[in-house]
Amino acid sequence: MVLTGAGISAESGVPTFRGGGNTAVWKGMPFDMISSARMLEGDLPAVWEWFNYRRGLLEKLKPNAAHFALAQWQDRFQDFMLVTQNIDNLHQAAGSRDVVELHGNIWRARCPTCATRHDLRELHDGSLPSCSDCGDPLRPDVVLFGETLPPGAFERAAEKAQSCDLCFVVGTSAVVYPAAGLPEIAGNAGAYVVEVNPERTPLSDLCDEVITGNAGEILTLL
Ligand code: OAD
Q1: Per-residue pLDDT tens over the stretch 103-136
Q2: 4 burial class (0-12, 13-18, 19+ CB within 10 angstroms)?
Q3: Distance (Å) from CA 203 to ligand 1 centroid
Q4: Can you point out the beta strands (E) in 22-165?
Q5: Is the pTM here over 0.90, yes or no?
Q6: Of 63, 64, 142, 178, which residue is the least packed, with the fewest Cβ within 10 Å?
């Protein structure tokens, strides 16, 4: 099982949220404020503006060597599972299949009323898209602070964590739960847990092995 976070996309040019002593800020707001359920209730257009901005950044970016390495691991190992906290779709762009997306996907919108999902690449609806089925305003299909994970996603990942032999944790600061709890579940169940990150995280001391470095370089070597 491999759990990834924003750091795996850093070498593609995607900014991380934390790390290097910095925390992402947008228009003077910390990212966890603009990406919150509270903000969605109070100012949906601002939330769309933030996610539109991030989609704009992502549009031109490509998967990097780390994404491609993981897509190859899936071909080599029978019971492989890739679990990501990322919403950037770069794992899928590199060829990974059946990715467990714990935090949703920035290229999708969801109707809070009728639950229909929409591909944003097919919607040309201005900055506040509405549901083609029921007409209500759509929201990004992304998990915001204060919200629960999509039904089934964490359960699938946790089941794998319980049964895997080897758990890699790549490019995550390991501070956002429940995702950060997955390597702990794996370790407690007897898996060998390996972290790949240029910086230490709260998880480092719990890991069997910590490989210090950038994901693109390390995963390619492995
Ligand atoms: P963070 O931004 O918190 O952490 C990024 C991690 O990547 C840090 O530990 C960096 O040291 C590491 N890193 C940086 N460059 C790297 C590289 N080239 N190779 C490997 N690692 C590198 O990102 P996440 O842990 O993913 O939630 O953040 C978790 C969640 O917080 C995100 O999914 C997002 C955010 O709020 C939602 O969107 C719901």
Answers
A1: 999 999 999 999 999 999 887 656 688 998 999 9
A2: buried
A3: 13
A4: 25-26, 29-30, 82-84, 100-101, 104-110, 117-119, 139-142
A5: yes
A6: 178
* Ligand 1 environment, Cβ below 6 A: 5-8, 10-11, 16-19, 32, 35, 85, 87, 103, 143, 171-173, 176, 196-199, 201, 214-215
Please report the sign of the dihedral spanned by the C-alpha atoms of residue 165, residue 82, residue 94, residue 176: negative
Residue nearest to atom 36 of ligand 1 (CA): 32
Residue pair 176/191 in contact by the 8 Å Cβ criterion: no
Could you tell me if 153 and 84 are in contact, meaning their C-beta atoms sit under 8 angstroms apart?
no
If you take atom 21 of ligand 1, which residue's CA is the nearest one?
A: 171
Joined together, the tokens standing for residue 56 give 């704009």
The DSSP secondary structure of 17-64, one letter per residue, reads: SS-TT---EETTEEHHHHTBHHHHHH-HHHHHHHHHHHHHHHTT----
